[in-house]
Predict the structure.
Amino acid sequence: MYRIDHWIDGHTVASTSGRNGNIFDPATGQVQGTVAFADVSEVDKAVANAKAALPAWRATNLSRRAEIMFNMRELVSANRKEIAALLTKEHGKVTADALGELARGLENIEYACGIPNLLKGGYSEQASAGVDVYNIRQPLGVVAGITPFNFPAMVPMWMFANAVACGNTFILKPSEKDPSAAMLIAELLKQAGLPDGVFNVVHGDKVAVDRLLDHPDIAAVSFVGSTPIARYIYETGTKNGKRVQALGGAKNHMLVLPDADLDMAADALVSAAYGSAGERCMAISVVLAVDTIADDLVGKVQSRIPNVVVGNGNDPSSEMGPLITGEHRDKVASYVAGAAGEGAEVVVDGRDGAPTAGFFLKPSLIDHAKPGMKCYDDEIFGPVLTVVRVKSYEEGLQLINDNQFGNGTAIFTRDGGVARQFQFDVNVGMVGINVPIPVPVSYYSFGGWKASLFGDLHMYGPDGIQFYTRSKVVTSRWPDPRTSKVDLGFPQNR
Ligand code: NAD
């Protein structure tokens, strides 16, 4: 058993709230540790420290900020096996997947290494006689990040790298289900040279989140999690005058056209639906199969499923680990249990033969699903792939555009013209063309449409820099005293 406490002002601070949560080992189902749940005074302490650290940090020169990010890049890279082990221990994902998460997270630290270039403003010389106009981007102040269980290292990296490099100080409230990675990241940031108080971690639940949302010294909130909570965070945070970006859930469809390479499509479907036990916001959870190839495609996916090795994430032969909690495993299983009653066909039932210790399910495949069925309408967030058969490209596109979510989507085809049309027509924020999980690289930005994102700016990349800064425009004149005179007219440049 181990204990996770807060990280405030550069060191671990034991919680005195008396409120705690259990940390499970998803592979065994046993409680392996406890995590502190902050009360209001603990959040206030973290915010006060972040506020105190702000003046010196925002005055720190850009080269030094870049140097710290370069140091952090090296430290995360050097410690990647240790961080990955923590992800497997608390989240359950297999080691290769945990290392993949870190590689994608590290991209965001690399992006932030370019902060001197990213913060360059524009300059207009001689906007009027002797007048120059330029804009600068300044940090917002103390900002908060609230993150989900499914990427305990990568999603915090989406946020803090840019936030801190832009000159803000940061409070992270990680998922209470797998809180350890955040603490190792905090230690590495300290080793990288980040001054104490610039990066803080408070653990907890709704109490901590609500305090961050109404604390007057928090300028902005970045959130990633489920749609109902994302909506709540956005509405509450903006009502309290904060800048908010809140990324929500997903139901990502892959449209497979008759001309696609069906073996390649089936490989992609199995990887994208069952990788990380389907607990990815960019997982493919629905395949739209055009009628003429649907039987073939379902058969190819079905034949691949028995080869997916389900087991403890530490076992190098495992390809898919357990789900995060017993409660979540049971909820996912309930969609499979209910599918036949809704009129769908359960082709592969992942409840059969799943390891009984720990929170395991094997991959499930549900065919002949339709809108109106829970197995189609809800975000299941588990290893369940649902097939909807469609007559045409147009019917598939309509289903995607009618869906409440708009996080990711993919089309599999050999026809460039149709793929180009799909990219033009589809109401989804991230689109893959023969790419099943189109998570943008760090120099673009990540974000869905519709109920998958509340707010105007996407996460990380150029939008991230914009989110964590505000623009100031300076109009400047250094007049020659000899030309000075009183002029009450409105300043003009013609
Ligand atoms: P969640 O919404 O339950 O929790 C996310 C965060 O919110 C956690 O830190 C949690 O402690 C906090 N929280 C939970 N309930 C709260 C409440 N009532 N009030 C205030 N705060 C609360 O999400 P999760 O289960 O940790 O993560 C899975 C979800 O996240 C899925 O829906 C998935 O699609 C989504 N997700 C989305 C993206 C994206 O980029 N769009 C990325 C990853 C995960």
Q: What stands out?
A: The first strand starts at residue 2 and ends at 4. Residues 146-151, 173, 175-176, 205-206, 209, 224-226, 229, 247-250, 281, 379, 381, 407, 448, 452 surround nicotinamide-adenine-dinucleotide (CB under 6 Å). The CA atoms of residues 142 and 169 lie 5 Å apart.
